[in-house]
Design brief:
elongated; single chain; 34% helix; six-stranded mixed sheet; Rossmann fold; alpha/beta; 37 helices
């Protein structure tokens, strides 16, 4: 039951069908309502507001929409005003509060008018012969541009989500080919929110694109045409105006008209600043490329501030390609392409030099390795094609590399010329398979490989990059590729050392390449090519054909429509929680356990109380081991050590002594292939150390965070786990796998001599429900995990539904239900936790914490399992009832104790006979709610006011849900415990259960992951965020027995697993009190010693036949929020802000659903049916026992 205190609400919100709801504030004597509006009506309203002249006088202009989420509304809302300040501002107290609110609304209107949608002036500058510049500038009135943009956007919204209200929040423009339109995946939501640059790849054959290409081409001199074929390297970090290196690049763009930039390591805003400066200087828009092989975070991964290693987040770092090969799921590769595309376009990057389509079948390959999807050419082809499809739909151009193949080489082309073995027949059956598939998929570019092929071209032939046979006859002729051909970097030693900048450039174009990538001396290369044309060595038509292809590629990237980077889009789309959750999910699915001969995995924290974690990494790899050791430390005590290639031999003796005193030893190797790697092997000292441990009977668990081929260095290793990369997501996944998370990865490569393609041990039951596989052999290659539910990645510690007796497809309906509710305006976002027994089967966020961004909550942060929600009346059961249970269980309190025995103000009059039981069952004679907050502040004032109340009815004779009774129980706990309520509950309940994200009055540092609640126009006059929504709890300084608790779905799943098991044990249904399994629990033995299972069973059973109330808890009856399938012996509660918590011991099931449905107004009631639908969908997905509708009983 939820209590809605009556109060005047002078403002009415009308939510229009735009993606970010615009809210019209209207004075109204009626109570707040949310009437539905069709998409067409919303479009009309938006068009009307956009068309209003900016200069209209206040008297003549119609009121513009003023969203209450605007920064101006929130700028003042966080001040903690003294109590007296609030009293004077209640509704009806005078004109001052009303005038202040109106002034605030006016401010928002002015801000909105100034910051309406704008379209950048189109500008095409062609560098003409003689270096003259022709400039065309289209000037469009701001009001008309806003009208057109908003009308077009509203039309798109109406076609996709007609009549949906705020449905377009987080909505998807179109479904992925081959799928139904059931619900958005993370990339879908980002694509919908993206700027025009994130639209799907355009066509170079449209009329405007063709005209732009021809006009630009005609205006270019021969030198400028050649310059268009050159791309130079640039850092993406911050550059001051007088930076010499950036000035050199800017000169190449402005004065020499080079065609593009290869941007590398940097920060998100560094990318924006640099690229906007360069694009403004460019005559022809620059094509910007980046090596985003593992997502945009591969180059824009954020930074660590020294010396304390404070992390500054960046773009999303995805696991390397070989991790996708280990997970072997094309949906993952597709989503990786989408996410990479969304973030790349937001950063100003138009083409990714990805995917890597090399078939890595040579363990000695020093440069490709985990950059490849694996050694099976068909799987490399399929995963690469899926990546290309995903990127294309996000507007990102792609490049297949390195043609004709770089996987079977033993030399790094950065330092020397590698050789690929075999003849043409072998090339056709192996290396060329992925490239054929990519070309059929429509890949935009192909990058050459600096490799020699003596078996095809003969000894002494030039590298493939300079070979007309490979680049023209084979690629363009036999394979039919008609896109842009990029050389690999021409500054690499395999080319530059033998041919120099000039000859390498000329020969590359002779061979068939279009773009000269990163020549050592770009101006010399340009001059050499111009000279070759004038001398007749190169035909002018050959240059024109390449320039035309490059310009058409720019048109496909829509550069003729504008190339400016929008910094706001970066904060909205880059490095989002959804994207990082995806990375964590893929990393978890890719973890591969190759050997477990000592049965060391998973670690048992009860036996491994002390773990020595040794990190082996290079001196510059400062992040190595940080996340891995932190995650291990959640469950076991970790002692850390770090060594590198240059470690003194004596260090190993010290390590050995420390290892002998540890219960377990983990050796993590961050040996990564690459041009800057010290080595791709373990040094002899490390091998000797590991052998010495083995001889001493203390086998180390070897974990590879880089090269999977390390096993060849230590062939006798008994435990070998591969994480494929060293990024944070992979470190976290590896730690959780060692602690018991499911392991399902399979080798996408062979590890001779013992392990072949497809090997991998399964930890945990397989989806078919078999027992864990024996450690004596590999798991079946076709063992698969559950399918993606609506494009989402399950978190690392989610259990497979089939393993807990649930049907995954049926459970996936929950995702569609919640997504539809968000699109329908029920809530900005939601977080769901579903568990059976001690296993969490669903732990996911949906949508965002707010309808739009704000000063304190930028980028409309995504709802995640760690987001904090105001629990409202869930405080009554999670906090207050549990505290009372403990006091009763320990004998400090009896259910029939009179309240007056501990609270003196309750010792006289009608209150003298009121008992603890009566307050817990809402039979204490108290009214439901009184607005004490209007005049009172502090516990003492509240206790006096409550003591002075007259009874609403005779105690014990009726059941009337009352906040005031639970306020009193909170005071009672404090009196008996002799501690403040929040401190006592933290020490006795939350901390023992590992609930580290559960707070009264959370600190400001957590606001960014806290869901805002109502736009309060009566009491606080601000959008409530990070402070309790309930007015009386707020007046009690945020700590009260009836409301005030904030928590996450992650924490509440721990509480739910404990109370479910305790209730089952107390009711003789089997089981013992257990925590929710997963790495977030510090110890597998974490539980509450008090209350006992018997006490829990007593409190969670109905207290009287005529009432649904238990002791503190509620039970299902009638049209319950628990739906129709939770049984009569289930128990739970709801919260006014949109939260709910239900447990069914007979189904061994719990469901936690957190929303902030009161945002922006408490009169939004759409969450009611959402709750019922979610609980019914969860319950009916159970397959291991009958699930029948509950008997409705007489009260239905």
């Amino acid at each position: 039951m939820e209590l809605a205190p009556p109060r005047p609400t002078p403002l009415r919100f009308v939510i229009s069908p735009t993606r970010r709801p615009s809210m019209r504030w209207e004075e109204s004597a009626r109570s707040t309502s949310m009437p539905g509006r069709t998409a067409a009506e919303g479009a009309s309203a938006l068009a009307d507001s956009a068309a209003a002249p900016a200069s209209a006088s206040p008297a003549s202009a119609s009121p513009a929409p003023a969203p209450p989420h605007a920064a101006a509304v929130r700028r003042r809302r966080r001040e903690r005003k003294p109590a007296s300040g609030f009293i004077s501002r209640r509704i009806g107290s005078g004109r001052r509060a009303r005038d202040a609110g109106r002034a605030e609304v006016d401010m928002v209107r002015r801000l909105e008018t100034r910051s309406g949608p704008r379209k950048r002036d189109g500008r095409v500058r062609a560098v003409a012969r003689g270096r003259s510049v022709v400039r065309g500038r289209a000037v469009v009135a701001l009001g008309l541009a806003a009208l057109l943009a908003l009308s077009a956007f509203a039309c798109r919204s109406s076609s996709n989500h007609a009549g949906s209200g705020p449905a377009a929040v987080g909505a998807v423009g179109s479904a992925r080919p081959g799928s139904d339109a059931r619900g958005p995946d993370p990339a879908d939501a980002d694509a919908a929110a993206a700027s025009p640059d994130s639209r799907p790849v355009g066509s170079a054959r449209s009329a405007d694109a063709r005209a732009w290409v021809e006009e630009t081409l005609d205006g270019l001199s021969l030198r400028d045409r050649v310059a268009q074929l050159v791309m130079v390297w640039m850092s993406g970090g911050y550059a001051p105006r007088d930076d010499e290196e950036f000035a050199r690049i800017e000169s190449l763009v402005r004065d020499d008209a080079i065609g593009g930039i290869v941007i590398s390591l940097g920060t998100p805003l560094g990318y924006a600043a640099r690229l906007n400066r360069l694009q403004a200087s460019a005559g022809v828009p620059l094509l910007v490329a980046a090596d985003f092989e593992a997502g945009a975070g591969f180059r824009v991964s954020g930074v660590y501030a020294l010396p304390n290693m404070l992390e500054m987040p960046g773009a999303t770092v995805l696991p390397p390609a070989m991790a996708f090969g280990a997970a072997d799921d094309e949906d993952y590769a597709y989503s990786a392409g989408r996410i990479t595309g969304v973030e790349a376009r937001a950063l100003g990057v138009h083409i990714a030099f990805a995917p890597v389509l090399d078939v890595n079948n040579n363990p000695a390959n020093p440069i490709i390795a985990t950059r490849s999807f694996g050694e099976d050419p068909e799987r490399v082809a399929a995963l690469g094609a899926a990546f290309i499809r995903g990127a294309r739909e996000a507007g990102l151009l792609t490049t297949a590399k390195h043609f004709p193949g770089h996987g079977d080489t033993g030399t790094d082309s950065h330092v020397a010329l590698p050789v690929i073995p075999g003849d043409r027949a072998r090339l056709d059956s192996l290396e060329l398979v992925p490239f054929r598939r990519a070309i059929a998929e429509g890949v935009d570019g192909v990058m050459t490989a600096h490799v020699a092929a003596p078996g095809i071209l003969g000894a002494g032939a030039p590298p493939a990059t300079l070979s007309p046979y490979f680049m023209t006859d084979l690629l363009r002729g036999d394979l039919g590729f008609d896109g842009v051909l990029f050389t690999d970097a021409l500054d690499m030693a395999a080319i530059a050392d033998d041919y120099g900048a000039s000859e390498a450039a000329i020969r590359s174009l002779e061979a068939g390449s279009d773009v000269l990538l990163m020549p050592r001396e770009p101006l010399r290369a340009i001059a050499a090519v111009v000279g070759a044309v004038r001398s007749g060595r190169l035909a002018a038509e050959r240059i024109e054909a390449s320039v035309r292809r490059v310009l058409e590629l720019k048109a496909r990237a829509r550069l003729h429509e504008g190339a400016e980077v929008d910094p706001d889009a970066i904060s909205r789309l880059v490095g989002t929680q959804w994207h990082k959750s995806f990375a964590r999910g893929v990393a978890a699915r890719s973890i591969t356990l190759v050997r477990n001969e000592a049965a060391a995995v998973p670690l048992d924290p009860r036996e491994s109380r002390s773990v020595l974690s040794v990190t082996f990494a290079g001196p510059n790899d400062l992040a190595a081991g940080r996340v891995f050791n932190r995650e291990l430390g959640r469950a076991v005590r970790v002692r850390r050590a770090r060594i590198g290639f240059d470690a003194h031999p004596g260090v190993y003796d010290s390590l050995f002594r420390r290892a002998r005193s540890a219960d377990a030893v983990i050796f993590s190797a961050y040996v990564r292939p690459g041009a800057a790697s010290d080595s791709t092997d373990l040094p002899q000292e490390v091998r000797s150390f590991l052998d010495r441990l083995d001889d001493d009977g203390r086998t180390a668990m070897l974990v590879s965070f880089g090269s999977p081929y390390l096993l060849t260095s230590v062939p006798d290793a008994k435990t070998y786990l591969i994480a494929w990369g060293g990024a944070d997501a992979s470190q976290e996944a590896a730690a959780r796998a060692l602690l018991g998370a499911p392991i399902s990865g399979r080798l996408p490569i062979s590890l001779p001599p013992r392990h072949v393609l497809g090997d991998g041990l399964a930890i945990g039951r397989s989806p078919e429900g078999e027992s864990p596989e024996a450690d004596t052999g590999p798991a079946p290659i076709d063992a698969q995990g559950p399918p993606l539910a609506e494009g989402r990645i399950r978190l690392a510690w989610e259990e497979w539904p089939v393993n807990v007796g649930m049907d995954g497809d049926s459970l996936a309906r929950v995702d569609r239900i919640i997504d539809a509710a968000i699109r329908g305006g029920a809530t900005p976002g939601a977080v769901l936790a579903v568990g059976r027994g001690d296993r969490v089967v669903r732990l996911r966020g949906y949508g965002n914490l707010d309808w739009a961004s704000s000063a304190t909550l930028p980028s409309a942060a995504a709802a995640t399992d760690s987001s904090l929600y105001d629990l409202a009346s869930l405080t009554k059961v999670v906090a207050t009832t549990t505290g009372v249970m403990q006091l009763v269980d320990r004998g400090d309190l009896s259910l029939d104790t009179r309240i007056g025995e501990h609270l003196p103000e309750w010792s006289e009059g009608w209150k003298g006979d009121v008992t603890v039981r009566q307050l817990l069952t809402h039979q204490g004679g108290l009214p439901p709610f009184l607005p004490f907050w209007r005049t009172l502040r502090g516990e003492e004032a509240y206790r006096e006011a409550i003591a002075a109340l007259e009874p609403d009815y005779e105690p014990g004779r009726r059941t009337v849900y009352s906040d005031i009774g639970f306020m009193t129980l909170g005071f009672l706990i404090e009196e008996i415990a002799r501690q403040p309520l929040d401190y006592h509950l933290h020490e006795s309940v939350f901390r023992p259960l590992g609930m580290a994200e559960t707070w009264f009055d959370p600190p400001r540092s957590l606001y960014r992951r806290t869901a805002p609640t109502e736009v309060d126009t009566v009491y606080r006059h601000r959008h409530v965020h990070g402070e309790v929504h309930d007015e009386n709890a707020h007046a009690l300084e945020g700590v009260a027995g009836h409301a005030g608790l904030f928590s996450s779905a992650r924490d509440l799943s721990k509480f739910a697993a404990w109370i479910l098991a305790a209730a089952r044990e107390g009711r003789d249904l089997g089981g013992a009190a257990r925590p929710a399994r997963g790495p977030y629990t510090r110890s597998f033995s974490a539980r509450l010693d008090s209350p006992s299972p018997e006490t829990v069973a007593r409190f969670t059973a109905r207290a009287a036949p005529a009432s649904s109330r238990a002791l503190g808890w509620d039970t299902p009856s009638g049209r319950s929020s628990a739906g129709d399938y939770f049984g009569e012996r289930a128990f739970g509660h709801t919260g006014f802000t949109g939260t709910s918590f239900w447990v069914d011991p007979e189904l061994d099931l719990f469901v936690v659903l957190l929303t902030n449905r009161v945002n922006p107004t408490r009169d939004n009631r759409k969450h009611i049916e959402l709750r019922r639908a979610v609980h019914d969908a969860v319950a009916t997905s159970i397959r291991d026992r009958p699930v029948r509708p509950r008997d409705p009983g007489p009260d239905r």
